[in-house]
Amino acid sequence: MYPPRTSQLLLALSAILPSSLAAFACNDILTKGQHFNFEKLGGPRVVHWTDSLGTEDMEARWNFTLDVCNKLQRDKGVDKQNWCHDGARVCGVRALHDIYGDENDTISAVDIAGTYTMQNGPNAILDPTFGLLRDLKSNSDAPREGVRVELHGGRHPFDSKKEGVKQRAVIDFVCDREREGDEGAEKDTNEHEEEPKKDEDEKKGENGDKKEEKKLRRRGGEKGKCEDTEASLRFCGYEDEKTDKDDKVKTLRLEWRTKYACEDAPAPDGGKSWGFFTWFIIILFLATAAYLIFGSWLNYNRYGARGWDLLPHGDAIRDIPYMVKDLGRKVVNVVQSPGSRGGYSAV
Ligand SMILES: *[C@@H]1O[C@H](CO)[C@@H](O)[C@H](O)[C@H]1NC(C)=O
Ligand SMILES: *[C@@H]1O[C@H](CO)[C@@H](O)[C@H](O)[C@H]1NC(C)=O
């Protein structure tokens, strides 16, 4: 038996590397030769939507939470059944609210997109797809710069494969050189954390809330238009849509204005492209070391080798200095030869 080949070792090592290459790496979105890095947009972000449901006395208050870089974590104090399943990237939580009554809201969570590893098999994966906004034919407006990201894997109800309505999230990251991408979001998230009992405090702020909701509702009425707010991340719709493949997919549409969607965006921290290369060198070094150590150990144990013979391919390694010297001599020859043949150096 021979010591394992380097290639085999590399293969084995690559299996334990972070599998981010296959998954959706928010810092490395590549489509049509364009590269986007949305690392700075990571972390949970929330958008709200109030759906009037076409009734007078009931409305659905939605919170859509997404994290483009990681799976979502359930906030402390949120009931498990009021939150999406483990692995969700985009989660919709609906509070069915009785406008005039005092009844508690009925809460339900909708898994919109994510990679769910538990029970649901190969269909419940994020399976992200990307497209440049300027390539999208259906865009009637002036061409926009940026990238559209489509995330899949969700279904509602989640646990019944047959009856669950497929869900997806379509996020347009639109180039806006003035925006970092978190404008209008920070205040929002703070509120969530500091006032988790807002339901109880609701009466205080009721008038303001109502007014805002009415505004939102009016905006929601215009189809295909995004919510009219200064926030960088905006809600644009949550409706049944038909796709080529599926009959019906409930689609959450969001728009995210940010400078990171510009095609000439500088990398958030310049050295990022070193990442892969550095890893590669480290792995190569480790693999070589492991190969030499393991090979030596084998040679020692099996063949009782000592000294140079310990090293796998000991002869070859011993020859390296001579080969280098030889090569060096050749290079020197080549470099010197034009001069020595007197082509140009004559005085
Ligand atoms: C509403 O929720 C509170 C707190 O969870 C609970 O004590 C109360 O019984 C609920 N009221 C109704 C009508 O379900
Ligand atoms: C949605 O977000 C608002 C504001 O942060 C919060 O008060 C409310 O409880 C949330 N609703 C649900 C159903 O989680």
UniProtKB/TrEMBL annotation:
InterPro entries: Autophagy-rel_prot_27 (IPR018939), Man6P_isomerase_rcpt-bd_dom_sf (IPR009011), MRH_dom (IPR044865). Keywords: Autophagy, Cytoplasmic vesicle, Disulfide bond, Golgi apparatus, Membrane, Mitochondrion, Protein transport, Signal, Transmembrane, Transmembrane helix, Transport. This is Autophagy-related protein 27. Residues 176-223 are annotated as: Disordered. Belongs to the ATG27 family. The keyword tRNA processing does not apply. The chain crosses the membrane at residues 274-294. Residues 1-22 form the signal peptide.
